[in-house]
Amino acid sequence: MEAHIIQPGGPRDVRSIPLATKQGRFIPNERRPERAPDALQAAVNLMRLERPDARLRSISATYNCVGLVFANRRTLVDTDDVPMILHEDGYYQVPRLDQVSAGDVVVYRNAIGEIVHVGVVLCKEPEVRTATWKVTILSQWGANGEYIHAPDYVPQALGQPSGYWSERRVLP
Amino acid sequence: MTLSEMCRAIESHEMAARVNVASDLRVALDIVRIHPTVREFVKALNELGVAERILRRTFELAEQATDVRYENPNDVALMIYTWLLHQQDAVLASVASAAVCQVSNLWWASKFCTQVIERPFGQNEMAGTLSTPVMHKADSGDRLFAARMEFSPLTPFRFLGRSTLPGLRDYRDVQMTLMPVEEQLPFLAELGRFTAWAVSQDTAETESLAA
Lengths: 172, 211
Hints:
Chain A is an alpha+beta fold. Chain A is built from 3 helices and 7 strands; from the N terminus they run αβααββββββ. In chain A, 16% of the residues lie in helices and 26% in strands.
């Protein structure tokens, strides 16, 4: 027998699943147990009270926002790993809001610049009255469910949108 | 707000929902820190007997039977109580963490308590006092801790990681460690001088792994 050394959420952790970037680097992840129905109901009630204009899409605690965006809702991935994933999956920052497209990723940061949340752009529509764009996001709010919402309409702990990222490729 | 009312608030579904907005432990602890009830609790910690009462309540919650199909409903409360104890007294926090680490189906509480227990040697003089009774054998998914045998009861205590093997019998079956990479090889080289405890996630069983 030999000693195998891993990190929590690493490839040998019983709670992780095989998950890698496009470049093949393992993405640390851990599956979380589902929460009981009454706990999930309480979460939905609280979110409905605090963010009534957000629309619940699905309620499950077994993945987080990063897991929704980069792991197809299968597991939890730490927000600290987002820069590595963006880099290794070939994402680039979208410089202007008018260039954002459905499927792009929005990254949220807290007051000291740490990444605390991510979401996916569902759609972008022109806002004629204000001559700007109305962007709609889909994101998982911790373990409290997936919501469809305006970019800055998230619980306070999830920070503010700090930029849009895309992996879109176009023919030359 | 009385202490009982504060405990009810900490153990409520609403508190769990507020903390569970977080995607990682750092954000979860940020939410806890600024919550009005928690702040009130922090002030109350200076009163005689409050910390001991929190510790007793932590043990009560840790021993509660829960539905194994779901995450432990006391997860957030256990994290907050341990965090409160950590603000007041490192020994009490370590004792609470040792108990919480044996509770099944936790998430935040498990992550925070592991941090408390695995603090670096230099910051962890009291960790040896938290060893739980040594019984039976470890199981897959158990958490493993190690301490030097020849030291005093206040021996520093290290978290190794989780076992992936049922019936763990030997330290060489330990499949993981949370140590920084540069510390791993020296640690393994002298592992024979350690006694390890396997602290179960699922069955509360522990095993001494005398080298």
